[in-house]
Design a protein that fits this description.
two-stranded antiparallel ribbon, two-stranded antiparallel sheet, 18 helices, about 70% helix
C-alpha cells in the first residue's frame, strides 16, 4: 500500500529507526578519530578532556529535546530555516538559508568528501592529495579532490532516485559505523588497555594546562584567567562540531511518518547514542594510549594511534576503512537533508525557482543537484576547511536564535498546537542558550580571524535578500 502524499508533495516513508539513524549518522564523521588530540593539547588533563566531550554531549542533547517542540509545531520540510522564519521573520530565515547553502552545509559536504578521499589514500595511494592530475597556473587538481567530487555526485544521484534509497543507505552505514566504533572500543579494553597507561594518564587529570613539545619533552603551562577560557573555547569548538548536524532530520520532517512524535524522539535517541559512543571511545583512548601520544598524534589521528596499539600495523588499515564508512555515511545524511532546506526556500521565492519542485520520485532533485554543484566547486577551491572555520560563530548564532525562538513562539502563538513541548522548559533551553552564547563570545575573542569574516558572510546575505525581493517585485 502506497503512502499518501502530504500537502508539500512529499510521501512520508521514513520510520523512527530510520530517522534516528539519520540523526546519528549525520553526527558521526571523522571528528571522533581526530579532535581529541587538539582538546588534550588545549586542556592538558584526562579529566578535562573527557569533560569537554561530556559537556558537548549534554548540551547537544538539551538542544535536541528543545528542538522537538519546534519540529512538532512545523512538521514539514525545511527544519531550522522554517523555525527561524516563523519565530522572527523571512529575513532571519533567509540569512540562515544563505549561510547554510554558501558555506555551512556545502562546505561541510566538501570537507567530509575530501576526508573520505584522504583515508581512501591509505588503501590506494593513487588517491592522495599529493597525486596532482593536472595544474593550470597556481590551480592544482588532485586525485583526492576528484574522489571527493565523485562521492558527492554518487550520493546525490542515489538520493535523487527516492528518499527510500538515501534513508536505507543511511540506516545501513550508520549501523555499521556505530557497531564498528563499539567494536573498536571493546577491542581496546580487551587487547589494548594497560593499567599503567590508565593510571599515568589520570595522575594530573584535573590540572588545566597547555601541552607543548620541546625537543621531544612534554611541557605543561598552567592556564589561568583568559587563557583558561580560551582553552575551553577551543576544546568546545571541536567537541560541539564533532556532534553537529544532529538537527538534520528536521529538514526532512515532511517525509517522516508521524513527525509530531518521531522527529523529537529520533533527536533524543540519536544524540544520546552518539554521546555514549563518543564518551566510550575517548575513555578507551585513555586506557590504551599515553596522554602525550594522544595530544601529539601524527596529523591529530588519535584513532589511528589507538588502532595501532590494539591491532598492530594492521590497525591503520582498519581505522582507514572505519573512517571511510563513517565519512561516506555522514555525507549521505548531509546531502539528503540539505536539499530540503533549499526546496522550502524556493517555495518562499528565496532560492532558485526550479529547486522548489519535486521529481517523479517525490524528491527535490533540482535542489539536490544545485547543492552538488556548489559543494563540488568548493572541493575545487581547496578552501573548504577555511570556509567552515569562518562560519563556526554563525552556526552557534543560529542555534541560539532557534532555541530562543521557542520562547518567542510561546508568546506569539500561545494557542498553536504543540504535540510535544520542550523538556525542562524554560530552564533547560535557557542553559543551552547561556552555554552556546558564552562559547560564541569566547570564539569572538580568541578566534576573531575566523569569527569576524564568518559574521561578514552572514551579513552579506542582507543585500542579497533585498535584491531578491526587489527582483520579485519588478516581475
Amino acid at each position: 500500500m502506497t503512502s499518501q502524499t502530504n500537502e508539500n508533495g512529499f510521501k512520508p516513508r521514513v520510520t523512527l529507526v530510520d530517522a534516528t539513524m539519520v540523526v546519528a549518522g549525520s553526527m558521526i564523521g571523522s571528528g571522533i578519530f581526530i579532535v581529541s588530540a587538539e582538546i588534550t593539547r588545549s586542556v592538558g588533563g584526562a579529566g578535562w578532556m573527557l569533560s569537554m566531550w561530556l559537556l558537548a554531549g549534554l548540551v547537544t542533547i538539551i538542544a535536541a529535546v528543545s528542538y522537538g517542540e519546534l519540529a512538532a509545531m512545523f512538521p514539514g520540510a525545511g527544519g531550522q530555516y522554517v523555525y527561524l522564519r516563523e519565530a522572527y521573520n523571512s529575513l532571519i530565515g533567509f540569512l540562515y538559508g544563505w549561510a547554510f547553502f554558501t558555506v555551512i552545509q556545502t562546505g561541510t559536504i566538501a570537507a567530509v568528501g575530501v576526508a573520505f578521499a584522504k583515508f581512501t589514500a591509505y588503501l590506494i595511494p593513487a588517491f592522495s592529495e599529493k597525486q596532482i592530475l593536472f595544474a593550470l597556473g597556481s590551480f592544482q587538481f588532485s586525485a583526492a579532490q576528484l574522489v571527493a567530487i565523485i562521492t558527492i555526485v554518487l550520493l546525490t544521484y542515489i538520493n535523487s532516485r527516492g528518499v527510500e534509497n538515501g534513508v536505507f543507505l543511511q540506516t545501513f552505514l550508520t549501523s555499521v559505523k556505530i557497531i564498528s566504533l563499539i567494536g573498536l572500543t571493546i577491542a581496546g579494553f580487551i587487547w589494548g588497555a594497560k593499567a599503567e597507561i590508565w593510571e599515568q594518564n589520570w595522575q594530573n587529570a584535573w590540572t588545566l594546562s597547555n601541552l607543548t613539545l620541546d625537543n621531544g619533552q612534554l611541557q605543561q603551562t598552567a592556564l589561568t584567567g583568559l587563557a583558561f577560557w580560551g582553552a575551553i573555547a577551543i576544546s568546545m569548538k571541536g567537541t560541539l562540531f564533532s556532534s553537529d548536524a544532529w538537527n538534520s532530520i528536521t529538514s526532512i520532517a515532511g517525509e517522516v511518518k508521524n513527525p509530531q512524535r518521531n522527529i523529537g524522539l529520533s533527536l533524543l535517541l540519536g544524540t544520546i547514542i552518539v554521546t555514549v559512543v563518543y564518551m566510550s571511545t575517548n575513555v578507551m583512548y585513555l586506557a590504551v594510549v599515553p596522554l602525550k601520544e594522544i595530544a601529539f598524534a601524527p596529523n591529530d589521528r588519535v584513532g589511528v594511534v589507538a588502532a595501532d596499539y590494539i591491532f598492530g600495523s594492521g590497525g591503520t588499515i582498519a581505522i582507514a576503512i572505519m573512517i571511510m564508512i563513517s565519512t561516506f555515511g555522514c555525507n549521505n545524511g548531509l546531502i539528503l537533508s540539505g536539499a530540503r532546506v533549499y526546496y522550502t526556500m524556493a517555495k518562499d521565492g528565496l532560492f532558485f525557482k526550479k529547486a522548489g519542485t519535486l521529481n517523479e520520485k517525490q524528491v527535490p532533485a533540482y535542489s539536490l543537484w544545485i547543492q552538488c554543484a556548489w559543494a563540488s566547486l568548493l572541493c575545487l577551491t581547496g578552501e573548504y576547511n577555511r570556509l567552515l572555520a569562518l562560519v563556526i560563530f554563525g552556526v552557534l548564532l543560529f542555534y541560539i536564535l532557534t532555541i530562543l525562538g521557542i520562547y518567542i513562539l510561546r508568546m506569539k502563538r500561545p494557542d498553536m498546537a504543540r504535540p510535544y513541548k520542550a523538556f525542562g522548559y524554560p530552564f533547560l533551553p535557557a542553559i543551552y542558550v547561556v552555554v552556546a552564547a558564552t562559547l560564541a563570545v569566547l570564539l569572538l575573542i580568541f578566534e576573531a580571524e575566523y569569527t569576524l569574516p564568518g559574521l561578514g558572510i552572514i551579513l552579506l546575505g542582507i543585500p542579497v535578500y533585498y535584491f531578491v525581493l526587489k527582483r520579485d517585485a519588478v516581475r
